[in-house]
Design a protein that fits this description.
The structure is a single chain. The protein is of the alpha+beta class. The chain folds into 2 domains: about 5-40, no CATH class; about 40-205, Jelly Rolls. The protein is about 25% helix and about 30% strand. The strands form 2 sheets. Strands 1, 2, 5, 7, 10 and 12 form a 6-stranded antiparallel sheet that branches. It starts with a helix and ends with a helix. Bound molecules: calcium ion (CA) (2 copies). One calcium ion (CA) binds near residues 149 and 150.
Length: about 240
C-alpha cells in the first residue's frame, strides 16, 4: 500500500473516533491531570507560626541541649528524630535574639544537612521551627531543603529567611523526612552549611487506613475454609454413591 493510501485509510477509518475523541479529550486530559496531581506530593514552604501547623501533634524544644560538644547524631525528643553527624555548640546568637542555649545546632557546620523524621515512621503533613544559623548574618544565607516520602524525593527548594523567623513546610499528601541546611548562597546540598533550629513542631498526616487483608476477621476465614472442605468431601461422597 502506498503511503498516501495508508494515510487516507488511516484518516478515513479514524475520522469518526477522532471527532468523538476531540469531544472527550478535555475530559480525559482533565482526569489524567487529576491523577497526576493526586499521585504527586506537593510540598510548600511557609513563613510564620501556624502557617503550616494548625495542631502540633509532636514538639521538640531541645531545652536539654545546654552543653557544648553533646552528640546530636541521632537526637530524639517528643516522638521526633533530628539527625546530623555533629556535636552541639551553645551560648551564641543563632536566632538574632541574643546568646541562647537549648536549641539544635551542629557546631562547626558541615557539608550535609539536618534530617527530621518521626520515631515511628508516621508521615508528616506540617512542620515548623524557629530558624537560625551559625553565620551571624542573614543576607545571602539560603535555607535549602528536600522532602522525602517512601524513598523518593517529593519536594525541594531554597529560600532566604532572617534568623528568628518561624519557617514551615506543608504537604497534604504527607512526607517521611525533611532535610534542611542553611549556608551562604546555598541552592543545593553539598555546600558548607550551619543551620540552627528550635521549637520544632509537627502535625502528622492522617494515618493510612488498614489494609483489608490485615483486618482481623475473628477466625471467619478459617471457618469458611473448613465449611468449604466439608462441602467438597460431601460432594465427592455423593459422586461415589451415584
Ligand atoms: Ca529551646
Ligand atoms: Ca512513608
Amino acid at each position: 500500500m502506498k503511503e498516501s493510501e495508508q494515510s487516507m485509510k488511516t484518516s478515513q477509518s479514524e475520522s469518526r473516533p477522532c471527532g468523538y475523541g476531540l469531544r472527550v479529550l478535555p475530559l480525559i486530559l482533565g482526569a489524567l491531570a487529576g491523577l497526576a496531581f493526586e499521585g504527586k506530593a506537593l510540598t510548600v514552604t511557609t513563613i510564620g507560626t501556624g502557617s503550616s501547623v494548625t495542631t502540633a501533634d509532636r514538639t521538640a524544644t531541645f531545652d536539654c541541649l545546654t552543653k557544648a560538644f553533646t552528640c546530636v547524631d541521632c537526637y530524639t525528643e517528643g516522638g521526633l528524630t533530628i539527625s546530623e553527624p555533629e556535636l552541639t555548640f551553645v551560648g551564641f546568637d543563632a536566632f538574632g535574639r541574643g546568646p541562647a542555649t537549648g536549641f539544635y545546632y551542629g557546631g562547626g557546620g558541615n557539608r550535609g544537612f539536618v534530617s527530621i523524621t518521626t520515631t515511628d515512621s508516621r508521615e508528616i503533613q506540617g512542620l515548623e521551627f524557629l530558624y537560625g544559623n551559625g553565620f551571624f548574618a542573614d543576607q545571602f544565607i539560603n535555607t535549602c531543603w528536600e522532602t522525602w516520602k517512601d524513598g523518593s524525593m517529593v519536594g525541594s527548594g531554597y529560600f532566604e529567611a532572617c534568623r528568628g523567623t518561624v519557617v514551615g513546610w506543608n504537604d497534604p499528601a504527607g512526607f517521611d523526612e525533611l532535610r534542611v541546611a542553611a549556608g551562604p548562597y546555598l541552592t543545593r546540598f553539598g555546600g558548607f552549611q550551619a543551620v540552627a533550629l528550635d521549637n520544632l513542631c509537627v502535625q502528622l498526616a492522617a494515618a493510612p487506613s488498614p489494609s483489608p487483608h490485615a483486618t482481623p476477621d475473628g477466625g471467619a476465614s478459617v471457618l469458611l475454609l473448613g465449611l468449604s472442605c466439608l462441602a467438597l468431601v460431601a460432594a465427592r461422597g455423593r459422586l461415589r454413591a451415584s
